[in-house]
Predict the 3D structure of the following.
Amino acid sequence: MIKCIDELDIESKRVFIRVDFNVPIENGKVVDNTRIREALPTIRYAIKSKCRVILASHLGRPKGEVQKKYSLEPVGLELAKLLNTDIVMAEDCVGDGVKKVVSDLYSGRVALLENLRFHPEEEKNDPKFAQKLASLCDVYINDAFGTAHRAHASTHGITKFVQIKGAGFLMKKEIDSLGKLLGETKKPFIAVLGGAKISDKVAVLENILKKVDVMLVGGAMANTFIASRGMKVGKSLNEPQSEPIARSLMEEAVRIGVKLLMPVDVVVASSPDDTNFEVVSVEKIPEEKMVLDIGPKSLEIFSKEIKDAGTIFWNGPMGLFEKPPYDKGTIEVAKAIAGSLAYSVVGGGDSVSAVSKAGLKGKFGHVSTGGGASLEFLEGKKLPGIEALEI
């Protein structure tokens, strides 16, 4: 059993909340505050409970070294605006200076620790480092679903040294929403999968294939499926080593009666920077060109399946959505999912960026804050950061 923050006695206590503030920063400013806003309900609840609130997060990959570009200071400024209150910014996440910052906090005040990954011990799940983090608090709350698939000191090790532990509201929402896809679902259940590589998603492809009625495959991943059927994919991104997996998945889909659909036409150009594109059948991809998006016929087929769905899980773009005009397939698929009557879950990463780009926030049943974590959850794996909260 995992208790949520509102089921714990946290009144006036020191509460350590592991948040996921790994957000994009440009020129010293946060450019997308989605992950910060998602953590606000938990933070506000702790403030209202007169807690001394200690927030901790990683940012980027500083590889265990202090690097100014990975400082959480811009995040602290953004959080202060969103909460409309001052945030006390600690210069580190452990040590005597941090202990003093916490001891000087008044009830209802918030401190933000510096980047956890400035210390190599964080990713090594070092027990001594975890104990130092634990010494700052009376209660531990994990609200960082995006890191739940990692056994790090702040997501796993710390729980061995804090008696009162639980999930934040975001973590609970993620577990409940993604959990719906693993139980009884409204039919037909459709998985829309894209992105670059099959190799990154083999386990989730195999696991979700057993649960869905229809699987739609787009993005560069579809190139490997196309190539596995003996067709040429030109200069397209492709994984020849994964072609046997693609063939095996197609055979398994036939065996268990799952409709596995791939693009029938694609948008090709000589390079991602070339806007002189053409639409061709997947059987006639020119040798000197690359696939950059799904074509209009494919989009029509995919949209029809999506319209009739009862449940939808979407992970991965349909093409090179970062570069117009190769964002059309992804944006139109996003609109089709948003406009359907199905219970829809968007599985983190690039798909979330595409949702923002299409201006469709709030149009889905659930938009996950964790890409890798959501995929591993749907593989049926036990995630260390979630398992550590069980009592």
